[in-house]
Amino acid sequence: MKIVKSLLFLSAVIFLSCNNADTTEKQAGPEKLNDGWIVSTPVAEDLKPDLIAEALAYSADNRKLDALIIIKNGKLVVERYANGYGPGKLHKVWSITKAVTATITGIAIDKGHIPSELEPMYKYLRGYPMQHTSLQAVSIEHLLSMTSGFAWKELGGPGSPGYELPYSSDWVAFTLQLPHSSPGKEFSYNTGSYMLFAPIIKNTTGMQADEFAKTHLFESLGINNYQWDKQSEFWTKTKGDELKGARDPGTIKYSDTFAAFTNTGSGLHMLPRDMAKIGQLYLDKGKWNGKQIVSEAWVNKAIQGHYDNTAYGYGWRLMSYEINGKQYPAYFASGFGQQSIIVIPDMQMVVVLAQQHYDSMPEGDRLTSELMNKYILSAAL
């Protein structure tokens, strides 16, 4: 393994010195595609080439890392693929979908379809009864910030809401009937809350969430190759190796209305280069190529905590990296299997990782943390 790692390190160093974009190992050297990205090199964007080379060698040791994208100063500087992936192959992003859902909710508010994120959610859930009077106090912001008050456990195993949700015939109704307490008091990561945005977007804009996103977000970003599953397609679009231990869902009968709803919590499949566009959009305060796509005011709200929670905004997790004793604030969208869009504003950097750590999340977290701290972020200092 040491010999292989040394060879990968050497090939990466040679690339960074020669800027040869045709390397068959695809260790670096982004392809110049007509997708809106300006291609550059780590050296040209003031990234230390030796640490980038080590990052690429380290990435090769992570057998479940399918794609690594690094954006610096708004330019695509590193692009590495493995396991049969490449610039044109979609990757399931799971809960990174939530950051996109939050973004189109912001756009819907910007355009006046929804007066404010402080609006009560029940006004926009036509046809669904409110099982508890306390639900009338739940705002759209409570859903966005995961402070909705539903009794929820995301990874509790059989019997827990997070496990049982996809086995239900209507995910919206399933979430609304859960025990509920006053909103805004406690953060609880809750996929069910984000599934409620499917009817909210449909009832306020007249378009399904995926259609609204296509018209008002993806086309503006030059994102044309993607897939956004319906909530009712969860089992048909989930591979057997992704949810090991899941029981047979059998035949679930969905109503026509529910079956048409977009999976606003986990249904997106995207190209890693396009995932990076979502991060760059936020880094540039809602702009892409100089055009305002979502308001700067919305971006600022999305990347800060709410209701005394400092770890989550609107679809984005909040954190900071400590490098050489200095703190670098960051925010990231994450998904099952260790999918990540990481934004580090002080470094003008966006990092995307598409991975397959479905049954090895702790190991994936360790590998990701070491890759970021020891190599990629240190290369920017």
Index terms:
34% helix, three-stranded antiparallel sheet, disordered N terminus, Beta-Lactamase, globular, six-stranded antiparallel sheet, alpha+beta, 2 domains
Can you offer a commentary on this structure?
The protein is built from 13 helices and eleven strands. It starts with a helix and ends with a helix. The strands form three sheets. It has a six-stranded antiparallel sheet, sandwiched between helices. The chain has a three-stranded antiparallel sheet with strand order 3-5-4. Strands 6-7 form a two-stranded antiparallel sheet. It folds into two domains: about 1-90 and about 325-380, Beta-Lactamase (2-Layer Sandwich); about 95-270, DD-peptidase/beta-lactamase superfamily (Beta-lactamase). It has helices spanning about 1-20, 50-60, 95-110, 140-145, 160-165, 170-175, 190-195, 195-205, 210-220, 255-260, 270-285, 295-300, 360-380; strands at about 65-70, 75-80, 90, 225-230, 270, 285-290, 290, 315-325, 325-335, 340-345, 350-355. The model is unreliable at about 1-30 (pLDDT under 50).
Q: Can I get a quick summary?
A:
The chain is of the alpha+beta class.
Instruction: Count up the domains.
Output: 2
| Secondary structure: number of strands | 11
How many H/I helical runs?
A: 13
CATH top-level class of the largest domain: Alpha Beta
Strand arrangement in the largest pleated sheet: 2-1-11-10-9-8
Largest sheet: 6 strands, antiparallel
Order of helices and strands: HHEEEHHHHHHHEHEHEEHEEEEH
How far apart the termini lie comes to 29 Å
Strand proportion: 5-15%
List low-pLDDT spans: 1-28
Query: What would CATH call the architecture of the largest domain?
Result: 3-Layer(aba) Sandwich
Structural class based on helices, strands and sheet pairing: alpha+beta
Mean pLDDT: 92
